[in-house]
Write a structure and sequence with these properties.
Layout: H1 4-11, E1 32-41, E2 47-49, E3 52-53, H2 57-65, E4 67-69, E5 75-78, E6 82-88, E7 93-101, E8 108-113, E9 118-120, E10 127-130, E11 139-146, E12 152-157, H3 159-168, E13 170-174, E14 177-184, E15 187-193
Parallel strand pairs: 1-6, 7-12
Antiparallel strand pairs: 1-2, 2-3, 4-5, 5-6, 7-8, 8-9, 10-11, 11-12, 13-14, 14-15
Amino acid sequence: MNEAFYDRNASKGGTATPPLVGLERREKRSPRDCGNLPFVIKRDGTWLYRGSPIGRREMVCLFSSVLKREADGSYWLETPAERGRIEVEDVPWLAVEMDWSGVGTGQVLSFRTNVDQVVTAGPDHPISVKHGCLECAPVPYLRVRDSESGLPLEARISRAVYYELVALAVPGEVCGKRVLGVWSQHRFFSLGDLPACGEL
């Protein structure tokens, strides 16, 4: 991607605001491969360009909209004109707020991400829990959208929102195991094994 505008802006004391290159309407063609781009999405959801936080939220939202994921798990920014690989420390987004309505199996859980996407958990947007290398505690994720490669682009559910989920959890069974989980759009999502009576 053309970095000249950004570098000029930064030298004048401007905020870290990368250029909008290739986002305008163009005829259909394969985008030019720019290799590795100096973008990093930190684990806390901060976007960096050349090591500096991108200051404008609108820019972060815009770049998020053109984020792709390849079959090898790598992340790319892709416009009709250009594409380049970027570094993502965990997943691209955080789910920072949750709203819920209804009860029982008809309950509906909706999440807002740090780039203002609203995603409703359900068959197309499942919740999954993983155990990462950095944390012993379970780490919940929400599928935001699928990529053309078939790999999901996900948001990590923030710790505060996870506590809200746990408060809504009910006992259930998954693959013959007793678990605690939540319902959304008639789908049950496990949050973890149900402790035995002696462990409570």
